[in-house]
Amino acid sequence: DTGVSQDPRHKITKRGQNVTFRCDPISEHNRLYWYRQTLGQGPEFLTYFQNEAQLEKSRLLSDRFSAERPKGSFSTLEIQRTEQGDSAMYLCASSLQAAPGAEAFFGQGTRLTVV
Amino acid sequence: GDSVTQMEGPVTLSEEAFLTINCTYTATGYPSLFWYVQYPGEGLQLLLKATKADDKGSNKGFEATYRKETTSFHLEKGSVQVSDSAVYFCALSEVSGSQGNLIFGKGTKLSVKP
């Protein structure tokens, strides 16, 4: 397994357009997380899945954001009607379980620029 | 809510200098604590972790001790190398019920000069 992979690595879009990102977690990991990271800040939690169930959403996840994880494997994060404030690095992470200290493995992220 | 505060950078050191990056946390329960590192052009990687009070995490010469009395998890290394130049993030994870997501500090950029 090559780790967590995200696609695309970079995305430039015009304001108002919809964008979709994909994350492929490590295959046996049942937890999948989405984070957003802006310049000079640490990653901020957006949402997570346990298998195919979306168990928590941050208040940062506005109605324009939707995430899915069909069949508990890969996940997609869609942003509708993008705004300039959506420009950020979107990180995906996966872990085997939520035991104390369970390591989350991160992908390299998708950098979104909204112009 | 839970939060993590770490010293602001950037931090610039000469090779073989001693490194300390301070990290304190606020949490209602008993979190696990982590240091993640992000090397230039790469994704976040776990550097070390501690899951209960007085635990010491260590890896690649870096150490951090979980201090419940001071709610701290300071990162230290006795002799830094140029290859340690990266951004370091302190994080906590509250594992209760269906939780488990990480809460990160803002990151500290370390530059080590030869």
Please, what is the average pLDDT of chain B? 92
Order of helical and strand elements of chain A: EEEEEEEEEEE
Distinct helical segment count of chain B: 0
What is the CA-CA span between the terminal residues of chain A?
Answer: 36 Å
Q: Would you count the extended β strands of chain A for me?
A: 11
Computed CA radius of gyration of chain B, to the nearest angstrom: 14 Å
Percentage of residues assigned to helices of chain A: under 10%
Percentage of helical residues of chain B?
A: under 10%
Major sheet summary line of chain B: 6 strands, mixed
Low-confidence stretches of chain B: none
Count the strands of chain B?
Answer: 12
Q: H/E element string of chain B?
A: EEEEEEEEEEEE
CA-based shape of chain B: globular
Based on helices, strands and strand pairing, what is the structural class of chain A?
mainly beta
Q: DSSP helix count of chain A?
A: 0
Considering residues with a beta carbon less than 8 A from a beta carbon on another chain, report the largest interface and each chain's count.
Answer: A-B, 29 and 26 residues
Strand content of chain B: over 45%
Low-confidence segments of chain A, ≥5 residues, pLDDT <50?
none
Radius of gyration of chain A: 13 Å
Q: Hey, roughly how much beta strand do the residues of chain A contain?
A: over 45%
Largest sheet of chain A: 7 strands, mixed
